[in-house]
Specification:
Distance between the termini of chain B: 86 Å
Keywords (chain A): Cell membrane, Membrane, Transmembrane, Transmembrane helix, Transport
Protein name (chain A): Carbohydrate ABC transporter permease
Membrane topology (chain A): Multi-pass membrane protein
Oligomer: heterodimer
Shape of chain A: flat
CATH class of the largest domain in chain A: Mainly Alpha
CATH architecture of the largest domain in chain B: 3-Layer(aba) Sandwich
Number of domains of chain B: 3
Order of helices and strands of chain A: HHHHHHHHHHHHHH
Structural class of chain B: alpha+beta
Largest sheet of chain A: none
Shape of chain B: globular
Radius of gyration of chain B: 26 Å
Distance between the termini of chain A: 41 Å
CATH topology of the largest domain in chain B: D-Maltodextrin-Binding Protein, domain 2
Helix content of chain A: over 70%
Structural class of chain A: mainly alpha
Family (chain A): Belongs to the binding-protein-dependent transport system permease family.
Subcellular location (chain A): Cell membrane
CATH superfamily of the largest domain in chain A: MetI-like
Number of helices of chain B: 19
Strand order of the largest sheet of chain B: 8-11-7-12
CATH class of the largest domain in chain B: Alpha Beta
Helix content of chain B: 40-55%
Number of domains of chain A: 2
Number of helices of chain A: 14
CATH superfamily of the largest domain in chain B: Periplasmic binding protein-like II
Chain lengths: ~290, ~500
């Protein structure tokens, strides 16, 4: 009996490991492919039928081109700026709204929540939104990439349910000790909400890092283009013109893939550091109560 | 503590934002400074002109052409470039919010008609006298391409040379001891040999006869039957014919289906939306290709396929002769990229004057030379009366972007000759491809006819016929559905009537 359950365990474990390994490989494989393409000369790629997994000859030419490119380093700075500042604004505003909404005693709470929920389901559409951004006077500035998306309804609700689940007794004892509302907020609620802050912060940061459409719509000044816009131009640009302009320079595959790596790397690096909070934050918000 | 932290972050971000905007502001200023000085006696404030361009890649920073045009015309230019995918939505939001650029370009006739009907485009009619130099440059006959409802809402650019032709692996033909095909029968034989007789000698059946983009590659085959892709209007024996209803269409479909049935055509052809077919061809999987010369004949491209296989040799082939003659593709006579202004510029006569001056300038011998080649002795030299690029590679690269400023087009053959002296044979060959003249762009869609839906249906059914998913016996049923469900009958009637009114049909 014991023996057979051990074999069962072993079979189960083997299957689990194999399955997870397959899932892991399918996740890593595209990354590896892009990485290999970015360091292999394009002629070499073509020789191998356009498919390289382990590079045989290595060139850093693609990276040299990316880093000496007119647009990519500046776009990188813009993206870092909107990610850092944007996320800070997101967290501040979202939290300042999530906290009061988490209080069941707030007058008109359900109406406010309805209004928040409404924006999750319906939006004004492209042109009306554009008109609002224009009327606000932030068109063609980095603020057009930050302000219109300052609060995401979804993230707000995650924060709200997290704060809702903090024990009410804590606040009461703080009040008994004579703490005022602001002090409760900043010295009690905020420190306790670090996991959800980091989780939601990561959501926001990734969203900012991937800013694409709003930049295309609201920004005309090329020097304010974030990374993804420039990256897309590199990746699909030369191929999207119907009649290829005879003089147009077509970026090499190596250059394209190097650009992909450079623009993805920061997020890949940040992920593992936030991941532990990420799990904790998502769990705490949903289960505890 | 936390409060302080947040305040610091906000302060820091505000400072950073300031630094960023100062940065871009600084650029604009330095551009600005050059203008008043050099334009000398011109009015104090240069007129600001914004232009939206479709570009595959961004302009380099501080591009010389902008400075040059600003200086020569006493204007301040704001050049915005977008990918074709974004361009349309930028125009739409721009016009809807009254913030469109002063010049933009429309290459989709349906969109041009729609905007003209909405009354958001500038009417050039009162200014045609002033635009005479531009009109001379683009050609009086061409003007009709920029007209809607009898009014001149756009200035068409000169036509570009046709770039596509049949390309084949000469070394494969040699290895199989085959001659270049001249008729449809030989064409099929050659494709068959490319597929079945192991042209690359690797002992594997891993090659295909033919590939290209789905909306281009079949052009020469339809052309051999004297027709073209479904849904195009042309004149045959003095009568207006839509290729859908041309009896030759069924014959062409039957022939092309034969090629698909024999598995001679790249099985992934429908997925070739970008450069996949070229890559496959360069990798030695395809024997014949219908594609444009810049992607095959430019030195960098030759080097690309030579690296894969030093013996590879791509040559241009004549079109196969069929019962309906030889056509490579169709040529939509009414289609052109047109330059348009938003109606709102009417309020600013000084600006209108400058805009017209700009169009006239890039159409003048001096201006046209500038936007074609750049600056003399910087980007090009004149040797024996001919314009040749300078030997400095960086300067040639810089001049590669001048095409964006050819607002009214260019003298194509002269331009290509000086920019691509080594590819002359290739582009001359492609430009001489016989094209079937079609009139679709002259037809304004009738109310209720959804062109996008109808053409999607046509395309889907076309490939169902070719891949044998639907029997050709059902062709008439297909037409019937198209006429009734998709309103094609109304479109046909409208086309007949409009083309007669325009004097294309007697």
């Amino acid at each position: 009996m014991v023996k057979s359950s051990l074999t069962e365990d072993r079979v189960f474990n083997t299957i689990t490991v194999v399955l997870l390994a397959i899932v892991g490989i399918t996740a890593v494989f595209p990354l590896l492919f892009v990485l290999s393409m970015s360091v292999t000369p394009y002629a070499e790629v073509l020789k191998n039928g356009g498919f390289i997994v382990i590079p045989r000859s290595v060139t850093l030419e693609g990276y040299r081109q990316v880093l000496s490119d007119d647009h990519i380093p500046r776009a990188f700075l813009v993206t870092v700026f909107i990610t850092v500042v944007g996320t800070a604004i997101n967290l501040l505003l979202s939290f300042l709204m999530a906290y009061p909404l988490s209080k069941k005693t707030l007058p008109g709470r359900s109406l406010l929540l309805m209004m928040v929920l409404f924006t999750m389901l319906f939006s004004g559409g492209m042109i009306p939104t554009y008109l609002i951004v224009k009327a606000t006077g932030i068109l063609n500035s980095v603020w057009a990439l930050i302000v219109p998306s300052a609060i995401s309804a979804f993230n707000l609700l995650i924060m709200k349910s997290f704060v809702e689940n903090l024990p009410e007794e804590l606040f009461e004892s703080a009040r008994v000790d004579g703490a005022k509302e602001w002090r409760i907020l900043f010295q009690l609620v905020v420190p306790l909400s670090v996991p959800v802050m980091l989780t939601v912060g990561l959501f926001y940061a990734v969203q900012h890092w991937n800013t694409l459409l709003s930049a295309i719509m609201y920004v005309n000044d090329r020097s304010l283009y974030p990374l993804q816009v420039v990256l897309r131009e590199i990746l699909v640009g030369a191929e999207s013109l119907d009649l290829v302009e005879a003089g147009a320079k077509i970026p090499s595959e190596t250059f394209k893939m190097a650009a992909v790596i450079i623009s993805t790397l920061p997020m890949i690096i940040v992920y593992p550091f936030i991941q532990k909070y990420f799990r904790k934050g998502a769990m705490l918000g949903s289960v505890k109560g | 503590m936390n409060k302080k932290g947040i305040m610091t972050t906000m302060l820091a971000s505000a400072m950073l934002a300031g630094a960023l905007s100062a940065c871009s502001g600084g650029n604009a200023n330095s551009n600005n400074q050059g203008t008043p000085e050099t334009s000398g006696g011109n009015a104090a404030e240069p007129v600001e002109i914004s232009i939206m361009l479709q570009a595959a890649e961004p302009l380099p920073d501080n591009y010389f052409m902008i400075d040059e045009l600003e200086e020569r015309l006493g204007v301040k230019l704001d050049i915005q470039t977008y990918l074709p995918d974004d361009y349309t939505s930028k125009i739409n939001t721009g016009l809807a919010s009254d913030s469109a650029t002063d010049i933009f370009f429309l290459s989709d006739r349906n969109m041009f008609n729609k905007l003209a009907k909405q009354g958001v485009l500038f009417d050039f009619d009162p200014y045609m006298d002033q635009l005479q130099p531009t009109v001379d440059f683009v050609g009086e006959d061409n003007l009709v391409k920029g007209q809607a409802a009898g009014k001149q809402y756009g200035i068409p650019q000169t036509a570009r040379a046709y770039q596509y032709s049949l390309w084949a692996r000469q070394d494969w033909l040699d290895a199989l001891e085959l001659a270049a095909p001249t008729d449809l029968e030989q064409f099929q034989e050659v494709l068959g040999a490319f597929r079945n007789d192991d042209p690359d000698g690797n002992g594997k059946k891993d090659t295909y006869g033919y590939s290209g983009r789905p909306n281009e590659a079949l052009g020469p085959l339809f052309g051999a039957f004297g027709t073209t892709y479904p849904g195009y209007f042309y004149v045959k024996d003095g009568a207006l014919v839509n290729s859908l209803y041309d009896p030759a269409m069924k014959d062409a479909l039957a022939y092309i289906k034969g090629l698909f049935d024999a598995d001679l055509i790249d099985p992934e052809m429908l997925g070739n939306t970008k450069l996949q077919h070229k890559d496959k061809a360069f990798q030695g999987q395809i024997g014949m290709l219908y594609f444009n010369w810049p992607n095959i004949a430019r030195e960098d491209k030759i080097q690309e396929y030579k690296t894969v296989n030093p013996d590879a040799e791509w040559v241009q082939l004549d079109l196969p002769q069929g019962p309906g003659g030889q056509y490579a593709y169709y040529d939509d006579l009414g289609a052109a990229t047109v330059a348009a202004f938003p109606k709102s510029v009417e309020k600013d006569p000084a600006k209108v004057e400058k805009l017209i001056e700009l169009l006239n300038y890039v159409s003048s011998p001096e201006g046209s030379q500038l936007v074609m080649y750049g600056l003399e002795d910087v980007h090009y030299e004149i040797k024996d009366g001919e314009i040749v690029p300078v030997s400095d590679e960086a300067a040639v690269q810089e001049a590669a972007f001048t095409y964006l400023f050819q607002f009214t087009g260019r003298d194509e053959m002269v331009y290509l000759k000086s920019k691509f002296p080594n590819q002359e044979a290739a582009y001359t060959f492609a430009n001489e491809m016989p094209l079937l003249p079609v009139y679709n762009s002259f037809v304004d869609n009738p109310e209720g006819y959804n062109a996008a839906d109808a053409s999607r249906y046509m395309e889907e059914e076309l490939y169902k016929f070719l891949y044998g998913k639907r029997s050709l016996d059902e062709y008439d049923d297909f037409l019937n559905t198209l006429e009734t469900t998709f309103g094609y009958k109304a479109y046909m009637d409208a086309a007949e009537q409009q083309l007669t009114e325009l004097g294309i049909l007697e």
